[in-house]
Design brief:
Helices cover about 35% and strands about 20% of the residues. It is an alpha/beta fold. The protein folds into two domains: about 10-65; about 75-280, 3-Layer(aba) Sandwich (Rossmann fold). Helix 2 crosses helix 4. The longest helix has 15 residues, at about 50-60. Bound molecules: glutamine.
Length: about 280
């Protein structure tokens, strides 16, 4: 038994109050190691500086800050996105939106895609990386978010992709978008949590931008604006898919149907929740 401060990876992980996976992510980040090095070098004495830097991050995590913000990154669709407190942290369930969007694009060449409220750029960049021929526009009303999305796109996309660079524009939904543009696909993961929802005061959400989470209303106002504005932005025989809350699928399908969309349906995420809804419009 030793009463000294833990100073090896093994001892730091043993002493950590965090779930092991989170402690490992913070430690590999501080050390700039690969995950396997935590095993092969587990008994190596670390310098005081590394120990202190790790313990500082550990304390911030214990106080609630999201792991993705502490390490400045989160993996989404196999890509490593920069994350800051100015953007929503990409969620695994949003990969369903990307997969469904990619399926909708299967028979189109050089499709035009619009991502509304892009945040980190996760959805737009993932689609653009899987479909190098797609021309992708990505909007956000937040200048900070656009700066992060711009960096993510520059780092993660091939500069020579046939579809060109992401067209990133500061815009409140469609407001500042060139009105002559028509898209084959519109996608969005908008703020859909109702203003009084207690989840806003729990977990990671406390540290994410409120404007990316809630519409400060009933949770459907951003979705209404996106659906209402879609017909004049969509090309002939085109598609819209939106992510929404666990209990909003029926309401979103009704909005799509009322707006003239056909083949309206929802898809379930890995938890079995109807997480996205969409439809086809022949304008
Ligand atoms: N999926 C997020 C959550 O419930 C909400 C993100 C959003 O509003 N688009 O944690």
């Amino acid at each position: 038994m030793s009463s000294t401060t833990p100073n090896t990876p093994a001892a730091l992980l043993r002493a950590s109050p965090l779930p092991l996976l989170e402690a490992r992510i913070l430690l590999t980040h501080v050390l700039d190691w690969r995950p396997t090095q935590l095993i092969t070098r587990s008994d190596e004495a670390l310098s005081d500086e590394f120990v202190e830097r790790y313990q500082a991050l550990e304390a911030r995590r214990v106080a609630g800050e999201p792991v993705a913000q502490l390490v400045g990154a989160r993996e989404f669709f196999g890509l490593d996105f920069e994350v800051t407190p100015h953007v929503l942290i990409p969620r695994p369930e949003t990969e369903l939106l990307v997969e469904t969007a990619l399926t909708a694009l299967e028979n189109l060449s050089r499709p035009r895609v619009l991502d509304l409220g892009t945040g980190t750029g996760a959805i737009a960049v993932a689609i653009a990386s899987m479909r190098p021929d797609a021309q992708v526009w990505a909007l956000d009303r937040s200048a900070e978010a656009l700066a992060i999305a711009t960096r993510n796109a520059a780092r993660l996309l091939d500069a020579k992709r046939p579809g060109g660079a992401l067209a990133l524009t500061q815009s409140d939904w469609y407001d500042s978008l060139d009105a002559t543009l028509r898209f084959d696909l519109i996608v969005s993961n908008p703020p859909y949590i109702a203003s009084g929802d207690p989840h806003l005061d729990e977990g990671d959400l406390r540290f994410e931008p409120r404007g990316a989470l809630t519409d400060e209303a009933d949770g459907l106002s951003a979705i209404r604006a996106i659906i209402a504005g879609a017909p004049t932005r969509l090309a002939a025989d085109s598609v819209l898919w939106i992510e929404h809350g666990y209990d909003q699928a029926e309401a979103v399908r009704a909005l799509l149907t009322a707006q003239g969309f056909a083949q309206v349906r929802s898809e379930r995420d890995l938890a079995g929740i109807e997480r996205i809804s969409g439809g086809r419009l022949d304008t």
